[in-house]
């Protein structure tokens, strides 16, 4: 772990202490971003960051807690004064044990609070730090094909609804930020072997991260307001 060089572009990855978020953070750090691992538990975050390459810091952030988000934004502003890339990755409750009619709506509400409103809350707090007009400003919402209305069945209802809502957030933010040149896209990482995806998943965290990173690396005249996996459009 090293301190931020003042000139490096700054990237924030939420939920970066494990899984796809950690793999995305590792890659961004290697690519030259000062990378902020935004994590609920800084001890676990420091453990996750200990052998990452490049310039990395760890900051406390609970995306479901408005005060935590406000504090995080203040610290980011004080330490870096800018943000270039925001990866809204944190998520919970792939609720495969539920069906729509039997679903515990408390679980559904918690899921929406983190997966959809969390990304919205963090975006509201951090976009003011992205108004510097440098090239390469991106918001990537880590979504899932589970949130595609086209293919939606009865499975994992809270999670599916949360990702559909996250996709709507992508459309809303992309529309508002188009004039600022900030590109906003949803990305599905595929089925990835993490705590959420389980050990049977065919993709590694690095492979899932590659799908996410595509939306960071697109050029400034690239797509905004889209939904992609591996750089290919997915149906809403
Ligand atoms: N794995 C898959 O097959 C798959 C497929 C499609 C989409 N995705 C999406 O990919 C993203 C990453 O998933 P993953 O598989 O890497 O999941 P994961 O291994 O379960 O990791 C989830 C991360 O989110 C963090 N998190 C949860 N609630 C948070 C909160 N309130 N504030 C801040 N951080 C919070 C967790 O932190 P703690 O360690 O503190 O709990 C953890 O770091 C998610 O958006 C997920 O929906 C995954």
From TrEMBL:
Pfam families reported in the protein's UniProt record: adh_short
Taxonomic source organism: Micromonospora echinaurantiaca
GO terms, molecular function: oxidoreductase activity
Sorted UniProt keywords: NADP, Oxidoreductase
Extent of the signal sequence: none
This protein's GO CC annotations: membrane
Protein family: Belongs to the short-chain dehydrogenases/reductases (SDR) family.
Name of the protein described by the UniProt record: Short-chain dehydrogenase
Domain of life: Bacteria
């Amino acid at each position: 772990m090293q301190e931020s060089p003042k000139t490096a572009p700054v990237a924030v990855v939420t939920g970066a202490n494990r899984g796809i978020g950690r793999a995305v953070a590792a890659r961004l750090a290697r690519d030259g971003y000062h990378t902020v691992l935004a994590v609920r538990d800084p001890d676990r975050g420091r453990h996750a960051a200990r052998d990452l390459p490049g310039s990395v810091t760890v900051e406390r952030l609970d995306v479901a807690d408005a005060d935590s988000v406000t504090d995080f934004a203040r610290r980011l502003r004080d330490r870096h004064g800018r943000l270039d890339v925001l990866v809204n990755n944190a998520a919970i409750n792939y609720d495969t044990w539920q069906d729509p009619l039997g679903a515990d709506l408390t679980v559904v509400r918690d899921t929406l609070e983190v997966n959809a409103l969390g990304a919205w809350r963090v975006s509201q707090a951090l976009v003011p730090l992205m108004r510097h007009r440098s090239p390469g400003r991106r918001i990537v919402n880590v979504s899932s094909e589970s949130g595609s209305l086209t293919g939606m069945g009865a499975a994992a209802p809270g999670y599916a609804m949360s990702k559909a809502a996250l996709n709507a957030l992508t459309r809303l933010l992309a529309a508002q930020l188009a004039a600022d040149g900030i590109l906003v896209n949803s990305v599905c990482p595929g089925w990835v072997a993490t705590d959420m995806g389980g050990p049977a998943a065919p993709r590694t965290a690095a492979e899932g991260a590659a799908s996410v990173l595509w939306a960071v690396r697109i050029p400034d005249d690239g797509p905004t307001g889209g939904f992609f996996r591996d750089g290919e459009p997915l149906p809403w």
